[in-house]
Amino acid sequence: MGAEELPSPLPKKYEQSPLILGLQPSALIDHIARVDWSLLDQIPGERGGSQPVAIEELMHILSEVKTHILLSPDDPSPIRTIAGGSVANTIRGLTAGFGVTCGIIGAYGDDEQGQLFVHNMSFNGVNLSRLRMKKGPTGQCVCLVDAVGNRTMRPCLSNAVRLQVDELTKEDFRGSKWLVLRYGIYNLDIIQAAIRIAKQEGVSVSLDLASFEMVRNYRSPLLELLESGDIDLCFANEDEATELLRGEQNSDPEAALVFLANHCKWAVVTLGSNGCIVKHGKEIVRVPAIGEAQATDATGAGDLFASGFLYGLVNGLSLEDSCRVGSCSGGSVIRSLGGEVTPENWQWMYKQMQIKDLPVPNLCK
């Protein structure tokens, strides 16, 4: 959406380039609610995945949520509204929980949701000098969480303001080490442009496969991206990994890991409660999930795993220890609603890292 860019109230100059950048062309606000099964039965599309909806459908779901809330004694706030989006979750986790300097490239609308996104991300220390304000609405997503912590997402980005390809500059990327991306067919043009500039500036690229529906429905352009050799690190969950090799003789997560590692330096397949498997060169590591994590809401589990894993990579940790940190951070976010880790759960994560003899970020010492 080529909306008019407005003068930004955000600071344009920071002292240093962020170590890690996230590209999220459209800022997004998550409405997370714990609901009963009957509401999920009424909503089109498969449970557990992510399927775009129009703004009318999103507003309808939000109105229905109020009569389907599952109250929990552990969580007095049954609905949370926070800055969201996979990339934003990962970047926010890296700054707030690990003290890694991060920035986000994208656009937000001149509305209440846009202001909420800006406030939440800046409060958590994210560099917003590459975030543009535009005239129009900010993207929104309803995240419905069932009684056992599984989440179903219905994003609405069709009318949201969006960063355009010609708005990317080399200066956005200069001096940074990593670019974090999420695969999406609607953003394919800007993803390709960002990768091209990142590679020119010597920035490594991390790609998350987004959702099993996205992999299933838009597999060909995804394969082209992977086969380009420009993706240095790829994250897939078990469902996405299976979809990637659908129709092949062997489409299990291990086969997908090998496939991804043929095209990327680091390949990561997360397996939920079974942990993760990772391949780098000839090294393959399998790390169990953290046993002490109680799943309240799976939203952001993969995003925060990526935060921990990237923290490990940029700090020179071994492949296994990077996975173990990812397991701790992924375990921290599922203990409460939404893709943002609470202060109490960061403390829980630091304690888990200490128990496992992992280097704890300086900011918590």
UniProtKB/TrEMBL annotation:
Keywords: Kinase, Transferase. GO terms for molecular function: kinase activity. InterPro entries: Carb_kinase_PfkB-like, PfkB_dom, Ribokinase-like. CDD domains: adenosine_kinase (cd01168). The keyword Transferase applies. Residues 79-339 form the Carbohydrate kinase PfkB domain. PANTHER family: OS01G0105900 PROTEIN (PTHR43320:SF1), SUGAR KINASE (PTHR43320). Belongs to the carbohydrate kinase PfkB family. This is Carbohydrate kinase PfkB domain-containing protein.
